[in-house]
Amino acid sequence: MALFRKKPKSDAVDPEARSPKTGIKYKDLEVVSVLVKHGADLTQPRHVLYYLYFPGEEPASNAADDARSHSFEVTVNDPLPQHPGHWSVTCERRGVVLDTDTIRGNGDYFDELAAKFGGEYDGWEASVR
Fold it and tell me: Could you give the domains of the chain?
């Protein structure tokens, strides 16, 4: 019966879209929201990790070299048995203050890095304290 069907949500926000106020992607603002909800003081430095995936060892290695040249600590991981041919790259930095410019700038950098080497930028996380 049509009376009991839920209407599709037409006002859903695209996580890849940017806030007009800050220029930060909504998916990144969600991470910030979770951090604050768990007690993070964003004015304090913290450990931040960024996750990328590449279709081979060479593009993963090239992306890792690029990230290292931008002062990130980088780990390239062999594919997991359930994801053969997908190399993961973890980039991290300690002592990061999560201000608007840093969140937007690092997000843009990792989007561009993934695109440059044919990979995917999966997102980031940070310590609460």
Answer: 45-129 (3.30.70.970)
